[in-house]
Design a protein that fits this description.
It contains nine helices and seven strands; from the N terminus they run βββββααααααββααα. By secondary structure, it is an alpha+beta fold. It folds into two domains: 94 residues, Beta Barrel (OB fold (Dihydrolipoamide Acetyltransferase, E2P)); 191 residues, Hypothetical protein af1432 (Orthogonal Bundle), CATH 1.10.3210. Helix 4 runs antiparallel to helix 5 and helix 5 packs across helix 8. The longest helix has 27 residues. The two termini are 34 Å apart.
Length: 324
């Protein structure tokens, strides 16, 4: 029997299908009655699910990352589709094909990695180029880098999302380098590669996309600094030379400041041309991707606007293309 994917549902459709439980939260209403909030995922997207009047302990064996048989009905609520669930039951993982539940990068990961290597190995600065080689030849790290998402909910939240995000920014930097001669392009390229590298340990992505314990306690910036420090020690051992102190400081500063402002998680504000360039290039790629995916995945095909998005604090204009 052909499965029904999340992007195929409309208001009023009956649900009886297996999905990946990406998130699970038990809540209590004003009358202390329990209800369940979920996010259900397959390779085409995510839909929220709601189950009323849940008895305490009845869903203890069902957790985020499990495959579940979901039964219920799709409902349009405040411009978005959600599932009103009547049953949620765990399904053995061996009965499921993981490729049906995880969105993946649209581009070819091997091609992305080839372009990544071409750009990074073209860096002129000897110390930075050797540092890049130490990362690129570490197959354990690079295997995780090829698989990792760039996030769990927003931009590039799928396997291969991190390398796609990084290569997009690298390509942009290469194209605009001549316009900003005061920016050290070698340093910027290295910083782009490493700014989110800590996400290979901040996130878990074997099944569901979640934060690891290390990720929640330390975050990808702190993890990234640790990885850079270790690789700089490898460079010094390989070359028998001390890695340039200022280059190391500038590179690490880019990693801890790339979110741009303290309220958005930066440990420091950007204080160098390369750091501010990285912040805006990173933000550009992330935001354009998030806007595009929000429009693309809007289930209300005949609307000119998406529903209000609390994260973006706005609706997005889709245009008149779906009107007849």
């Amino acid at each position: 029997m052909t499965r029904r994917f999340i992007n195929e549902y409309s208001d009023g459709d009956v649900v009886d299908e297996v999905y990946l439980l990406a998130e699970k939260q038990m809540r209590a209403n004003r009358n202390a009655s329990l209800y369940l909030l979920t996010n259900l995922r397959d390779k085409t997207g995510v839909m929220s699910g709601l189950m009323w009047n849940v008895q305490e302990g009845t869903l203890q064996d069902v957790n985020a990352g499990d495959y579940v048989q979901a039964k219920g009905k799709v409902q349009l609520y405040q411009g978005a589709l959600q599932m009103i669930l009547t049953k949620l039951e765990k399904v053995p993982a061996e009965k499921c094909d993981p490729e049906e539940f995880q969105p993946s990068v649209g581009a070819d990961v091997e091609q992305l990695e080839s372009r990544l290597r071409e750009i990074l190995l073209g860096i002129d600065d000897p110390a930075l180029r050797t540092l890049m080689e130490c990362f690129l030849t570490d197959e354990e790290l690079m295997s995780l880098f090829r698989q990792a998402p760039a996030g769990v909910k927003t931009h590039h939240a799928y396997h291969g999302g991190l390398i796609e995000h990084v290569v997009n920014i690298l390509e942009t930097a290469v194209r605009i380098a001549d316009l900003y001669p005061t920016v050290n392009i070698d340093l910027l390229l290295a910083g782009i590669f490493l700014h989110d590298f800590g996400k290979i340990r901040e996130l878990t992505f074997e099944n569901s996309l979640l934060y690891s314990d290390e990720g929640q306690l330390l975050g990808h910036m702190a993890i990234g600094l640790e990885l850079i420090t270790k690789k700089i020690a490898e460079v010094e051992k390989l070359t028998s030379d001390r890695f340039p102190e200022e280059t190391a400081l500038r590179l690490k500063h880019m990693v801890i400041s790339h979110h741009g402002t303290l309220e958005f998680g930066s440990a420091r504000l950007p204080m160098t041309p390369e750091a501010i360039a990285l912040h805006h290039l990173d933000n550009l790629d992330a935001k354009v991707h998030e806007f595009s995916k929000t429009i693309e995945e809007d289930p209300i095909a005949d609307s000119r606007w998406t529903p209000f998005n609390p994260r973006l604090d706005r609706k997005l204009f889709k245009g008149f293309q779906n009107e007849t």
